[in-house]
Design goal:
The complex is a heterotrimer of chains A (547), B (328) and C (296). In chain A, 71% of the residues lie in helices and 4% in strands. Chain A is mainly alpha-helical. A two-stranded antiparallel ribbon of chain A has the order 1-4. A two-stranded antiparallel sheet of chain A has the order 2-3. The radius of gyration of chain A is 37 Å and the shape is elongated. The relative contact order of chain A is 0.09. Chain B has 328 residues and is an all-alpha fold. In chain B, 72% of the residues lie in helices and 1% in strands. Chain C has a domain of 181 residues: 3-Layer(aba) Sandwich (Rossmann fold), CATH 3.40.50.300. In chain C, the strands form 2 sheets. Chain C has a 6-stranded mixed sheet with strand order 6-7-8-3-9-10, sandwiched between helices. Chain C has a 4-stranded antiparallel sheet with strand order 2-1-4-5, covered by helices on one side. In chain C, strand 4 and strand 5 form a beta hairpin. Classes of the chains: A mainly alpha (547), B mainly alpha (328), C alpha/beta (296). At the B-C interface, helix 1 and helix 2 of B face strand 5 and helix 5 of C.
């Protein structure tokens, strides 16, 4: 009795463990595919900001210029207060720049009065007192800038402002002095000047982050690097930037004796009491109207080329290159594979030649992909290209295609052989009985009947060739460059770019949609090919079952 | 048009009489042409068909040719005897650490993939109903079809950070990571071949065992799996070959530190495999230098090992086929 | 094609009447080749189209056909019967060299078609097979359209003109009594037809190369009785223009459709003669045993 229960339990355990292994497999597939598609889809479906539309217009000429212009205008209006506060606050933080400004006004003023003397509107004698007055004002102002004592500064500024109505200054550029003084007064009142250095650092950070958010300010010079020309093109990017603006990462001693812990400190606290504090509120509340996010479906991702920095655009050249490589591989291996398969089925019955052929096919199928890469480098790139084609021994699409052709050759042979074998003998007999020769029979009867099966093999081989990276590392793939136009060019391709984006590209690690978009495209491509093959095969088997 | 070349030979008189209006015999010219055509066609066909034979030979020749300068350069002892692989900095070519890395990754992956794969194959061949099997088969196929770079991507960007943050490893790209991912990759190969072997055992044996009162587990463990053992061994070997030859995944997930892990059981350390070394260093090395040839020597080693494993797996596969009586 | 309304397939036809009444139908050559000897001996009613002289065929060591000597006559239906594995199909397939598909096949003796040895090295296989058509056990239309199935043979002969092909297709389908059923779906896949229609299509396809001899390898074994009836009816119509050799394991069928019957056993030809003689008055013990159902 005990034994029977034991046996029963063991049986259940066995079944359970087998089921668990399949479950694990299915789960890992779901996890990997799910992760890749979920994160990768952000490359295509996302919330695009006004910067996105500006970029699309600027780079690809897409969208209605007038509409986008209006949108940009509106966003610029929403951003204006932020910039104003920033500018004003920034001035207070940089005494040297302010000093330069004061000096500039002073020089301008001098030139102005000289001009007036030449015009005869002023007398020659007036020059010296007027200049002296202006110099005094300037000196006070500069002293105020250089000081860090709030009281002293305010006194100096008062002194400056007291001369506002001096008739020597009215209607001249010297009025700029008073504007500066007023502005500075406002800044200084809410500012602890002893911390000016700290403010300056944080202010600069915020300024850069806002630049990341909004791009260059209107009227500013266009930066040469394309990625700096636009702000956050995606709402999630904008959120990341906003998060960085709002929160400061700090290592804080939480408990004495414990290691420092990373904490986030609201940056607003740092600027509490200053006009800058308002910037944070503005950004927090009005980011929407500043960036105008909208649901965007970017199907052109599959056709657009990314710019050299790999930031804007899509996977167009990679897809093209992948298809080129896989297509070349199939174009070269299909004829060879078909002939070999036909030979194995139609022309021979065993024998040492066939045994050797089969062994070689199996060996070829087992050669590691990196060894194919080595072979491609040593034989095709280094020997075949210079000696036979007269090309430079560089990576070319042709070399990659040839290497991949060898890689998929066993797959094609096996699939074609199976397909040709599956053609009923009766077709062949009927054709022969009608007087067709062997070649004729194969071409007009056997091959068409085997075609769906061969096609399945070709599709699977296409998927394999598209996904392989190691064989093209040294033979065809590059990470930068445009569309490959001839087989003599190296090419970008999905698997290699995926690898590069995953490992070495600093920009890509900051924008996951680029990383994940590339791998998603690759997996999507391979998956679509495989599903097609599965469907084709299913239809064949249904047709065979159905008679 | 064949009907135009009506030639009168011995039989043709009665042939015409019997209504045969087209000669049954070839003219000498057509006979010769046909003979030559068949001969030439056969030679041509055989040549093209043997492209794969040529490819295999060329691969061996070229890899060997490029590895030869290193093998004769008097550094073979160092290659197999030292663990210091610093080709660029110190001109040291001790590949033992790379072998160790490959061995760790392959052994772990083979173990997991073997166990998982065989039990999944059992599940598919003997436990689930046909309908569910039709759904699960594509899962296996798609798992096999996902490019290795995608697995590597997942290992590097999902598994590694998770290991670092949640499990508290110092580095997320380590032996454990690479082993787990590699076994997921190798599982489909094991499953499909092992399942074929299990299915090929046939219903008779199973029914015999069930008739004797065996439970399903006993039938499978005591009868079916022993009967299919050569096919299962071949499946595991092919899975192992997949793991040894894998490049992109191990390159991305192993951490690429050329070291022998110490202590040996610490799976949270980074290693570097032979394949990853070739992939990673070939781009930077000067073509024709010692380093270049050393990498080809690594490739040659890899090629030899997989070739040997292939022969072994073929031996086992042939044994299963012979037992089924279907021949080659 | 003339149609014989009075043809009765269920009753064993009167052979005598049949052989004589074929005179006026569409074969002008028939008259001049009929000899006086044929009148006196029904076995010799017209000249032999296929003539086997001590013909043997081996598959490696196995015997397929052993030392067969027989004449098959023009414009008549000859059936070959015998237990399965007796070599009747092998003999049939030797006539148009379909056994070439088996690499180990080896022939001895002579097998002449229209006076030419089929196993001559110089044989023109294309012409042989086009003039000796074959219909197989299982209907095996190509997975193409009905039209393309029929046009396959003519296209091999180099006929490319659409009008000519159309004409051939219609004629052959009419000959095979299939035209009325498929005239509107010539572009449909042949695989969509029923089994009996497929077999008639295969016959039509064989007719399209204008054969003189039609070899039928158990053409009805895969069909239901109704379809079998239609095929037999068709054979009855075709006998006027074609020499038909039919292999069957259905003795009633042999009796119904054929004028002469050969009985084979273990690769050997046991008895050959007019059907009614073989069935009613067998000379050999083994024939009698087989016909009366004692073995086979």
């Amino acid at each position: 009795m005990m034994r029977r229960i034991m046996r029963h339990v063991l049986d259940r355990l066995f079944t359970g463990s087998a089921a668990i292994s399949v479950l694990l497999m299915t789960l890992s597939l779901a996890l990997i595919l799910g992760m890749i598609f979920w994160r990768g889809s952000s490359a295509i479906v996302f919330s695009g900001t006004v910067e996105w539309r500006r970029m699309q217009l600027g780079r690809f000429g897409r969208g209605d210029p007038a509409k986008i212009e209006a949108e940009v205008e509106q966003a610029a209006r929403a951003r204006q207060p932020v910039y104003e506060i920033l500018d004003e606050f920034g001035q207070g933080l940089d005494p040297d720049a302010l000093t330069r400004q004061a000096n500039h006004i002073y020089r301008e003023y001098r030139r102005q009065i000289r001009n007036r003397i030449e015009d005869g509107r002023l007398d020659n004698e007036d020059f010296i007192p007027m200049r002296n007055a202006a110099r005094d004002v300037r000196n006070d102002l500069v002293a105020a800038y250089q000081s860090i004592d709030q009281e002293e500064i305010l006194n100096l500024l008062d002194a400056v402002l007291a001369r506002r109505d001096d008739e020597a200054f009215v209607g001249t550029t010297a009025e700029g002095f008073f504007e500066l003084a007023e502005q500075y007064g406002r800044v200084v009142r809410g500012l602890d000047l002893s911390n000016r250095e700290i403010y300056a650092e944080s202010y600069l950070e915020v300024r850069n982050l806002i630049r990341r958010l909004f791009g260059p300010r209107p009227g500013e010079e266009t930066p040469p690097l394309e990625r700096l020309r636009y702000g956050a093109t995606r709402w999630d990017e904008a959120h990341d930037a906003l998060h960085e603006i709002m929160w400061l990462e700090e290592w804080v001693q939480v408990e004495p004796g414990q290691p420092l812990e990373k904490t986030l400190v609201p940056r607003r606290d740092q600027f509490e009491g200053t006009p800058m504090a308002e910037v944070f509120d503005l950004l927090d509340h009005d980011l929407d109207s500043m960036l105008n996010p909208r649901l965007t479906i970017y199907l052109n991702y599959f056709t657009d080329a990314a710019n050299p920095e790999g930031v804007f655009g899509g996977a167009g050249p990679e897809i093209w290159g992948t298809f080129m490589l896989a297509g070349l591989a199939i174009a070269m291996s299909l004829p060879l594979g078909l002939v070999a398969a036909a030979f194995l089925v139609e022309c021979t019955r065993g024998g040492p030649l066939v045994r050797m052929l089969r062994m070689c096919i199996n060996t070829l199928a087992g050669v590691p992909s990196i060894v194919f890469g080595l072979f491609g480098l040593a034989a095709i790139v280094m020997v075949f290209q210079p000696r036979v084609l007269g090309w430079e021994p560089n990576s070319t699409t042709l070399a990659g295609g040839m290497t991949l052709a060898l890689l998929v050759l066993p797959m094609i042979i096996r699939a074609s052989e199976e397909a040709i074998r599956a053609v009923p003998r009766s077709y062949r007999e009927a054709s022969l009985a009608l007087g067709a020769g062997k070649l004729r029979t194969f071409l007009t009867v056997t091959l068409p009947a085997a075609l769906p099966g061969v096609l399945t093999g070709v599709i699977l081989a296409l998927g394999r060739a598209a996904g392989e990276t190691a064989p093209i590392l040294f033979t065809a793939a590059v990470f930068v460059g445009g569309w490959a136009t001839s087989v003599q060019d190296p090419t970008r391709c999905l698997p290699y770019s995926s690898y590069q984006f995953a490992t070495s590209d600093r920009l890509a690690t900051r924008s996951p949609h680029i990383q994940w978009g590339m791998i998603m495209t690759l997996v999507l491509l391979v998956l679509v090919l495989n599903l097609t093959a599965i469907i084709v095969r299913w239809r064949i088997s249904r047709r065979l079952r159905g008679g | 048009m064949p009907r135009n070349e009506l030639t009168m030979t011995e039989g043709s008189e009665s042939a015409a009489a019997a209504g045969f209006d087209r000669s049954l015999l070839l003219t000498p010219g057509r006979d010769l042409a046909g003979y030559l055509g068949r001969g030439i066609g056969w030679v041509l066909l055989t040549t093209v068909a043997c492209a794969s034979v040529m490819a295999v030979m060329l691969i061996f020749v070229f890899i060997f040719k490029e590895a030869w300068p290193f093998l004769t350069g008097g550094r073979v002892m160092e290659f197999f005897g030292s663990t210091a692989w610093y080709p660029a900095r110190d001109d040291e070519f001790g590949a033992l650490s790379l072998f160790a890395g490959s061995a760790y990754a392959t052994a772990g992956a083979t173990l997991i993939a073997g166990l998982l794969g065989v039990s999944a194959a059992v599940f598919l061949s003997d436990i689930v109903p046909f309908r569910i099997r039709q759904i699960l088969k594509p899962v296996v196929e798609i798992l096999a079809a996902i490019p290795s770079v995608a697995y590597g991507f997942f290992a590097l960007l999902v598994v590694a950070p998770w290991m670092q943050d949640t499990l508290g490893f110092t580095t997320g790209t380590n032996i454990l990571n690479v082993t787990v991912m590699l076994s997921i990759m190798a599982v489909p190969t094991v499953v499909s071949i092992a399942e074929d072997a299990l299915t090929a055992v046939g219903r008779n044996l199973r029914e015999g065992a069930y008739a004797m009162g065996c439970t399903r587990a006993e039938t499978l463990v005591k009868v079916v799996i022993p009967a299919a053992h050569s096919g299962i061994i071949a499946a595991v070997i092919l899975g192992m070959m997949r793991a040894i030859g894998e490049t992109m995944l191990v390159w991305m997930a192993s951490g690429n530190a050329a070291q022998v892990p110490s202590p040996w059981w610490d799976l949270s350390q980074s290693v570097r495999t032979v394949t990853a070394t070739i992939a990673g260093e070939m781009g930077e090395t000067e073509r024709g230098g010692v380093h270049y040839h050393a990498l080809f020597a690594l490739g040659l080693l890899l090629l030899t090992i997989t070739f040997g494993l292939n022969l072994v797996s073929e031996y086992f596969l042939r044994r299963t086929r012979r037992r089924q009586g279907t021949g080659g | 094609m003339s149609d014989r309304g009075n043809f009765d397939m269920t009753v064993m036809p009167d052979q005598e009447e049949r052989t004589h009444s074929r005179g006026g139908v569409s074969l002008p050559k028939a008259e001049q080749t009929t000899t006086a000897a044929a009148e006196s001996d029904p076995m010799q009613c017209c000249e032999a189209v296929i003539r086997a002289k001590s013909f043997s065929l081996y598959y490696g060591q196995t015997v397929g056909v052993k030392d067969v000597t027989l004449d098959i006559y023009r414009c008549s239906v000859t059936s070959i019967i015998g237990p399965s594995g007796c070599g009747k199909s092998t003999l049939l397939r030797s006539i148009n060299r379909m056994n070439d598909l088996v690499p180990s096949a080896r022939a001895e003796g002579k097998l002449e078609v229209a006076g030419t040895d089929v196993y001559d090295r110089r044989i023109n296989l294309v012409n042989l097979r086009q003039q000796v058509g074959m219909v197989f056990q299982h209907p095996n239309p190509f997975p193409k359209s009905i039209y393309d199935n029929i046009a396959f043979g003519p296209r091999l002969q180099g006929i490319r003109r659409r009008s000519r092909l159309d004409e051939i297709v219609e004629r052959c389908l009419r000959s095979a009594a299939l035209w009325e059923e498929v005239r509107d779906d010539l572009k449909k896949s042949a695989l969509a037809l029923s089994g009996g229609q497929q077999q008639r299509l295969c016959i039509a396809r064989a007719l399209a190369t204008e054969p003189k001899v039609l070899l039928m390898d158990e053409p009805c074994s895969a069909l239901d009785p109704i379809a079998t009836g239609r095929i037999e009816e068709l054979i009855g119509k075709l006998r006027d223009n074609y020499s038909i050799v039919i292999v069957t394991h259905n003795m009633q069928q042999a009796a119904r459709v054929s004028e002469r019957t050969a009985f084979m056993c273990m690769g050997e030809l046991i008895e050959y003669g007019l059907t009614r003689d073989v069935f009613t008055n067998p000379q050999q013990k083994r024939t009698e045993d087989y016909i009366t159902g004692r073995f086979g």
